[in-house]
């Protein structure tokens, strides 16, 4: 009798296990069946500038995945995050580190992630790295030799959502005790307003350097990933007061909800682009060299720490 009960229990367990296995197989098959097109989102750039390149890249992925592939060009960074968060896109290709951090926070993505290795300046030397630094600079003949001397002066930043041009420099100011972290009731500009007399967001590094050259501002920031000519001109005619970083390079994030075989094919297709970097340079960055592999905490950790230390994680809207 006991033997019969044992057999019944084992049989029931096997039956349940079988049902679970079949259900999992059916779920994966349904996911595969539902996915008849892979959607890629890239940085907000005008599609008409890269029509040929987009068509070539779509065909590359279609050949590798055996399915239809579409590249979308969202109008802003928030749309990139939302498309990954709600499953409208399956791959965020070469997005900025701040956008990548937001995607990693709100969406299920594959780990480790693919990160951009780019040609950057570290000091006066060009290197291929997945990080770089930004620098507080003043003109060579300026009377300032430390950040502390710039209290109450006029500063130029590229934008309030620039990782290298604003977030990391703000972390430096907080760590030096020149400003205090802000809370959710504040705006990003309220951070530098604690220290500087006037704050300008000029829209880019070139504009800020021009403002410094024209002595319209007293101090600005430049970074090791700007075009070589701009970097060399700015560094060659300035005094570097402080270094900020490391700043994470761009990231590529794959949705974890893709079928296993599609994820593997997509991962391999992305890695193989290291042999043809010119196919993705216009979508990742002009200084893209190849993809590397890093875990989120390794690559995005310095940025996430800077957002937390400054309080900008409460107020930055991308």
Task: Lay out the secondary structure.
Elements: H1 2-34, E1 37-41, H2 51-65, E2 68-72, H3 77-85, E3 91-95, H4 97-106, E4 113-122, E5 125-129, E6 131-139, E7 154-157, H5 163-175, E8 198-201, H6 205-213, E9 219-223, H7 228-236, E10 238-248, E11 251-254, H8 260-272, E12 288-294, H9 296-299, H10 301-310
Parallel strand pairs: 1-2, 1-3, 7-8, 7-9
Antiparallel strand pairs: 3-11, 4-5, 4-11, 4-12, 6-9, 6-10
Helix pairs in contact: 2-8, 3-4, 5-10
Any overview of this molecule?
This protein is of the alpha/beta class and 318 residues long. It folds into three domains: 1-34; 37-119 and 249-302, D-Maltodextrin-Binding Protein, domain 2 (3-Layer(aba) Sandwich), CATH 3.40.190.10; 131-248, Periplasmic binding protein-like II (D-Maltodextrin-Binding Protein, domain 2). Helix content is 39%, strand content 23%. It has helices spanning 2-34, 51-65, 77-85, 97-106, 163-175, 205-213, 228-236, 260-272, 296-299, 301-310, and strands at residues 37-41, 68-72, 91-95, 113-122, 125-129, 131-139, 154-157, 198-201, 219-223, 238-248, 251-254, 288-294. The strands form two sheets. Strands 1, 2, 3, 4, 5, 11 and 12 form a seven-stranded mixed beta sheet that branches. A five-stranded mixed beta sheet has the order 8-7-9-6-10. The radius of gyration is 24 Å and the shape is globular.
